[in-house]
Amino acid sequence: MNAPLQQQDPRFVKSTFSAIASRYDLANHLLSGGLDFLWRFRVARLGARHGPKRILDLATGSGDLAIALKKACPDASVTAADFCLPMLAQARRKGVPALVQADALALPFADGSFDLVTVAFGLRNMADWQAAVLEMRRVLADGGQLIVLDFSLPENPVFLPIYRYYLHHVLPGIAGALTRSREAYRYLGESIESFPSGLNMNALIRSCGFQCEPPRAMTFGIVSVYCGMATGRGSIPKADPDGAGRQNEVR
User: Fold this and answer.
1) What is the pTM of this model?
2) Quick one: pLDDT at residue 238?
3) What's the topology of domain 10-232?
4) How far is Cα of residue 36 from the mean position of the Cα atoms in its chain?
5) According to the model, what pLDDT value does residue 6 have?
6) Helices 35-47 & 24-31, crossing angle to 10 degrees?
């Protein structure tokens, strides 16, 4: 993990999600056949295992995972953060209470502020994956838990070419009609192809100061869940040496 990892252009990502924010949920639910609810429910259940009291949901988007986490951990405080204001506006309409506009690479929280950090379908869109995970480690208390949920490529050699055809040729057309932004879903397929998954993702997370559980593949391997426990801080490089970013609460 010495070389910089894949970079995503934050201006493109922000403008893309801003453009589809009002139809984001509709597209997600239809294109996944409603399985996105199951995937987030699974993450919330995993997150509840250790009874966290302070939870941060990064790249919260329209807030579905933050809502699921609050149901699974009713005694916890759940903070939902995203750098895209139109997406946070959707979360606010759903009643997600603690919303913060923040860049995941420069979070406005003190070291060790949370017991659990989650990121669903968001790490893949960040400008520097390793730097983002290091920043998540910074805001986690020692022994805290990180859970990453994201798309992955199936390992089944029969299913993989079928899935790739759907991802690159079918999904952009359907999603483009739903959201009026075919380009956003063309980008989705490209980003999934370049995103590390399985043991490669575990290696990335481990390099940032976590002990990792085996990856959990779901729905024939098109999504995967990665869980890591934050270890001691001694040798972990700082993700943001100039200090944390500025907090901007959405009211």
Assistant:
1) 0.89
2) 58
3) Rossmann fold (3.40.50)
4) 13
5) 52
6) 100
Helices and strands per DSSP (H, E), number in the chain: 10, 9
Which uninterrupted H or E stretch holds 175? helix 171-179
CA distances for 211 relative to 13, 117, 144, 186, 198, angstroms? 30, 15, 11, 34, 15
Position 5: which residue type?
Answer: L
Contact 57, 116 (CB under 8 A): no
Token pair in block for residue 141: 């208390």
Q: In angstroms, rounded to a whole number, what is the distance separating the alpha carbons of residues 14 and 12? A: 6
Q: What is the 8-class DSSP label of residue 19?
A: H
| Burial of residue 231, with CB atoms counted within 10 A of its CB: 0-12 exposed, 13-18 middle, 19 or more buried | middle
| pLDDT tens, position by position, 161-220 | 999 999 998 888 887 787 776 676 777 888 999 999 999 999 999 999 999 999 999 999
- Whether residue 185 contacts residue 179, with contact meaning beta carbons closer than 8 Å, is answered with yes
> Taking the mean position of all CA atoms in its chain, how far away is CA 164?
22
Q: Of 130, 104, 97, 102, give the one whose Cα is nearest residue 118.
A: 104
Count of residues in the chain: 251
Q: Give one word for 107, left, alpha or beta, with left for phi > 0 and alpha for psi -120 to 50.
A: beta
**SS3 state of residue 32:** coil
CA-to-CA distance for 10 and 33, rounded, in angstroms? 29
Write the single-letter amino acid at 100: V
What pLDDT does 241 receive? Answer: 42
Written as six digits, the tokens of 156 are: 């089944």
Low-confidence ranges of the chain (pLDDT < 50): 1-5, 240-249, 251
Which residue's structure tokens are 């989705």? 188
Query: What residue type is assigned to position 132 of the chain?
Result: A
Q: Compute φ and ψ for 169, nearest 5 degrees.
A: -120, -30
